[in-house]
Amino acid sequence: MARAEPETERGAACQPSRRSPEKIARARELRGGDNQAEGTLWNELKARRLGGYKFVRQMPIGPYFADFACRSQKLIVELDGSQHAESSSDRRRDEFMRGEGFSVLRFWSFDVLKNKRSVCETILAALEGQLAEDVIAPDLRFVFAAKKTGGSAL
C-alpha cells in the first residue's frame, strides 16, 4: 500500500523550501540566540501585534540575515549593539538590502530596552509611509528604498 502524500493545513502537498538547509539552520541558530533587546522587540512585533503587520525573525536576504522583516511593506528592522558603531560593513549591508527593495531601520539595542514605545512608534511610522527619506541620527538610522509598482517608483 502506497503512503499518502503529507498535506499542509491548506490541503496542498508539502512543497520543498526555496531556502537552502544551511540558511534555515543558521536562521534557527540566530533566533535561538536572542539577546534581551531582540526578545523584547519580538514580543511587540510577533503575532501581528504592531498595527496588524506580520514580521518574521532572522529572514535570509542574499548573504545576510535580517533581525526582523515585514515582507509586505519591505521593511527590515535591525538592532545594533556598540560593536556596530560607524560600521562600514553595516552600511554595505544596508545598501544591499536597499538594492533588494527593502528599507532598513536601525536602532540601538539599548533604546529598545529603555524606550520601547518610541521604537515601536517609529517602526509603525515607517510601515505606514510616514518616513519617506533617509534619516541618520545618533539613535536611529533609516535607509529608505522607494517602493516600486509597475516599474516606477512611488
TrEMBL record:
Gene3D superfamilies given in the database record: VSR Endonuclease
Domain DUF559: 24-128
Basic and acidic residues bias spans: 1-10, 19-32
Annotated stretches, region: Disordered: 1-32
Top-level taxon of origin: Bacteria
Protein name (Swiss-Prot/TrEMBL): DUF559 domain-containing protein
Organism: Mesorhizobium australafricanum
